[in-house]
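S.,

Sequence below, as promised.
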Amino acid sequence: MDFNDLKPIKLSLINDSKIYHTNQKRPELHHWQLDWHKLSKLIHDNYASIAEVRAGIAEDWLRTNGIIWDDQIGYYHYPNSHYDNINSIFWGYSSWGTPTILVTFLNESEKAYKLYTTGMDYGFHYLGGN
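The prediction came back faster than expected:
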């Protein structure tokens, strides 16, 4: 799988959202979750050109993103792992926003992509070793 197969998306802050603000009930517009299968395939097929992959909700990026994989550690979580690294906690589901990945490439360029499927699974999925 190639990054050209994905749709780019702009990352924003919750304060800029026209859909949801923190002082109101979350709207239920859809049930979108991170597409774990595509994410695993993207990393597997492109790891030689990637420095880091983060996931979160595009419309509330600063509060919802965390590291999933990087070229030093590999995957940040594994079965029964401890969540010691606060930078690795992320949102993988939203009823109003867009599950997204931000890829930092080895040439230090960054690009955000929509990466979701229908579902309500927001838990971490084990994607493999380093």
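Residues 3-14+29-115 form one domain.

Coffee later?
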